[in-house]
Amino acid sequence: MRQVAILLFNEIEVLDFAGPFEVFGVAGRQSGQTRFSEPPFQVFTVAERGPVYARNGLSINPTYLLNDHPKPDILLVPGGGSYLSDGTPAGARREMHNPAVLNWVRRHADKAELVLSVCTGSMILAGAGLLDGLSATTHKSAIRSMADLFPAVSMQPERRWVDNGKIITSAGISAGIDMSLYVVGKLLGEEVAHETASYMQYEN
C-alpha cells in the first residue's frame, strides 16, 4: 500500500485536491475486484494548520499537520488562489514563499517515490527548487508568470501533464484527475486506470 499525502492550504482550488483524492482513493477498490490483497493507496491530507479554507469558502479539516503524519510514498501538491483584493498573494502564490511548506516539500520529496503537482502547485515545487532544469506545466493563466519567476524551468503550456520520471506536473484544475489516472496506470497498469475511470464515470 502506497501512502499518498496531499498538501492543503488556504485558498486551495477544491478540484485540485479532491479530484486526485478521489482517483487514488477508489483505485483498486471496485466492487468484486480481487487483484489486490489490500487497497493500493491510502490517501491523507496534510496542512500547516487547520481548518483550511478552500476557494469559495469550503472548510476542510486536514488529516494531519506538517510535523505529524505517515511517511508519504507519493506527495501531491495542489494549487489555487491568485491575489486578494488588496494585491496580497493568496493560495499557491503565497505558499511558494512559505518556508514551512517549502521545507516540508523538500524533505518529503527527497524520499518519496513520486512527487506530483496540480495547477499552480507547480509554483510551490519550483519555489522549493525541485523543477530546476526540468519541464513542467501549470494552469494556463499562470504559464507566463511561472516562466518569469522560474526561468530554469522549461514550461510546456500545451501539455495536460508533464512526466519527468519522479516529478509529474499537471495543468489546471481538472487536469489533476487526468494526471492521477495516468499515475495509477504507471504504477498499477492501464487496466486498473481504466477500471478506476469507469467507476468514476470519467472520460479522459
From TrEMBL:
SUPFAM superfamilies: Class I glutamine amidotransferase-like. Residues 3-184 form the DJ-1/PfpI domain. Gene3D superfamilies: 3.40.50.880. It holds the Pfam family DJ-1_PfpI. InterPro entries: Class_I_gatase-like, DJ-1/PfpI, INH-QAR. PANTHER family: ARAC-FAMILY TRANSCRIPTIONAL REGULATOR, DJ-1_PFPI DOMAIN-CONTAINING PROTEIN. This is DJ-1/PfpI family protein. It comes from Fibrivirga algicola.
